């Protein structure tokens, strides 16, 4: 499976903060926002990842993440000149996807919960159609909503409905088989001229090849699109990390635990940031994983 992070857009709801910097470069507590979606793809076992952003912001992502080799992954980059809809990511990324299945995650979405890596890998292994991830919300009229029948099967997708038939929002994480590229090419632009991801998902649903995984209780799904939401996400990460003594979306730790890099490489990455709590945490993780690694 190949991965795509869509980190474009103009971030107008976060102006003036994002007038000169990508929203996905902004910190969520103690690390850049893009670390969070990147860690999700890595936890799914995906090592070839395309980052799509604006022409203005691509160099910032390259400067931050490089080619990914230090993390045992392969990062590439592509432009989305204008925000023409989420589904355009599959057209832009067609060569990257090639003949493989594909995971798309939005660059401003944060996921956190127990056994998340296992859940991701179980659903990424052999995708037949599309897999959507749902999460209960209090204000379903603001989201794309999944409607389930009595047997918990996905039967409809409603985009920002005035009278929601469900409170299960479709999150910004999607798994697709290889048909997604041609499906995206075949959908009609919306009245706003955008290629809507909901139209892609409805095509799969009409073909009987769409399912929903309900994240439900015990998980956190955070959208960082507004100042209040960004602050809430910072507080969530701060609280979880300080109470549990862990780091959410620590890329070096994820790479080590997934077997992408060894403990020596992880320790060296931490040592390069040894003046920070983050760097010292990475060094400690490497030492716990392989005692004596620093000797």
TrEMBL record:
EC primary class: transferase
Molecular function GO labels: glucose-1-phosphate thymidylyltransferase activity; metal ion binding
One Pfam entry name: NTP_transferase
CDD domains associated with the record: G1P_TT_short
Biological process per Gene Ontology, one example term: hexose metabolic process
Reactions mediated catalytically: dTTP + alpha-D-glucose 1-phosphate + H(+) = dTDP-alpha-D-glucose + diphosphate
EC number: 2.7.7.24
Cofactor list: Mg(2+)
Keywords: Magnesium, Metal-binding, Nucleotidyltransferase, Transferase
Annotated Nucleotidyl transferase domain residues: 2-236
Family: Belongs to the glucose-1-phosphate thymidylyltransferase family.
Described function: Catalyzes the formation of dTDP-glucose, from dTTP and glucose 1-phosphate, as well as its pyrophosphorolysis.
UniProt-recorded name of the protein: Glucose-1-phosphate thymidylyltransferase
Source species taxonomy: Bacteria, Bacillati, Actinomycetota, Actinomycetes, Streptosporangiales
């Amino acid at each position: 499976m190949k991965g795509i992070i869509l980190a474009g857009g103009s971030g107008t709801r976060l102006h003036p903060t994002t007038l000169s910097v990508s929203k996905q470069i902004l910190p969520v507590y103690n690390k850049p926002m893009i670390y969070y979606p990147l860690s999700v793809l890595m936890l799914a076992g995906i090592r070839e990842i395309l980052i799509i952003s604006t022409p203005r912001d691509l160099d910032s992502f390259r400067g931050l993440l490089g080619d990914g080799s230090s993390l045992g992954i392969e990062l590439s980059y592509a432009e989305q000149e204008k925000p023409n809809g989420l589904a355009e990511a599959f057209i832009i990324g067609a060569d990257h996807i090639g003949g493989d299945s594909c995971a798309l995650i939005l660059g401003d979405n944060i996921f956190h919960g127990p056994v998340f890596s296992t859940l991701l890998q179980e659903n990424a292994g052999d995708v037949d159609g599309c897999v959507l991830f749902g999460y209960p919300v209090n204000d379903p009229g603001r989201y794309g909503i999944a409607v389930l029948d009595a047997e918990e099967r996905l039967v409809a997708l409603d985009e920002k409905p005035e009278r929601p038939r469900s409170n299960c929002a479709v999150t910004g994480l999607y798994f697709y088989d290889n048909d997604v590229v041609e499906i995206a090419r075949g959908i009609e632009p919306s009245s706003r001229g955008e290629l809507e991801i909901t139209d892609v998902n409805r095509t799969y649903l009409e073909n009987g090849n769409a399912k929903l995984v309900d994240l439900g209780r015990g998980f956190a799904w955070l959208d960082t699109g507004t100042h209040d939401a960004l602050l809430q996400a910072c507080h969530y990460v701060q609280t979880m990390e300080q109470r549990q003594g862990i780091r959410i979306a620590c890329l070096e730790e994820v790479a080590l635990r997934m077997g992408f890099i060894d403990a020596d490489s992880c320790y060296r990455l931490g040592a390069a940031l040894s003046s920070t709590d983050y760097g010292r945490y990475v060094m400690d993780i490497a030492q716990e994983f392989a005692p004596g690694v620093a000797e």
